[in-house]
């Protein structure tokens, strides 16, 4: 049983490839998607593995620190039957998806279903937010946090009539404060999210998350000839930079025999590096940039985690 739950936002600062493992159409390496909506997601198991790997880099072979990591995240695979970990992550669900806009460079697009799912994650952690009743835009229209000239917005090649919505405005202001890391580097994006959150009809949001991802061609070059190998061309799909997802960090009491750490201690250690046997370099997860998914050597998968506080 998980006794402590904390919502986490995941903000992409580079293209992110969390692979689905099977090809679809011309895309050889698609990203993970929900089966029932086809919206992008990141499996919780992948998040946990990436976070564990990131933490392990700070342990630098120190057996005592690695032991603490295993107490929280579970033992290594060769000793996996000894005890279960005390930390888990839910699947990260898309919350805002960047869509090209002629007048604003891009907007943060969302939908009623996506907003409702985010509210559910927040309420599962007993966090109450007051955004009001999220509207349901009709075909060809959208609800916005800020004002757009002449009440129109052009996304990719599609024009929408738009009207400012108080619930969307409230949600955007809350997300701008809570979802992005602190610091001047994110001031521009905080302000942009506050005014450029756009609530789309479900059908249009679905179109953009399926057709406006980053699809990159890769060519495998022969070391001997220096030319492309036969069959060496393949396409990899990525979540675009500026995508925002939400997940739930869940912690239980330590499950080793001595059961020394309470759920709140496990959570504090994971998020903030607080607790026993912690090096000065170890800062926990909150506000840190880590690498998740594939293509790490080409700069892909750089994301920031931000814990939500009341």
How would you describe what is shown here?
The chain folds into 2 domains: 1-18 and 44-90 and 239-310, Elongation Factor Tu (Ef-tu), domain 3; 98-212. 26% of the residues lie in helices and 27% in strands. Strand 4 and strand 5 (105-110) form a beta hairpin. The protein is α+β, with helices and mostly antiparallel strands and 310 residues long. The strands form 2 sheets. Strands 1, 2, 3, 4, 5, 6, 7, 8, 9, 12, 13 and 14 form a 12-stranded mixed sheet that branches. It has a two-stranded antiparallel ribbon with strand order 10-11. It is globular, with a radius of gyration of 21 Å. The longest helix has 16 residues, at 44-59. The mean pLDDT is 89.
CATH C-level category of the largest domain: Mainly Beta
- Coarse structural class: alpha+beta
- Distance from N terminus to C terminus (CA atoms, Å) equals 23 Å
Q: What percentage of residues falls in helices of 4 or more residues?
A: 25-40%
Write down the overall mean pLDDT.
89
CATH architecture group name of the largest domain: Beta Barrel
Number of structurally distinct domains: 2
Rounded radius of gyration (Å): 21 Å
> What spatial form do the alpha-carbon principal axes imply?
globular
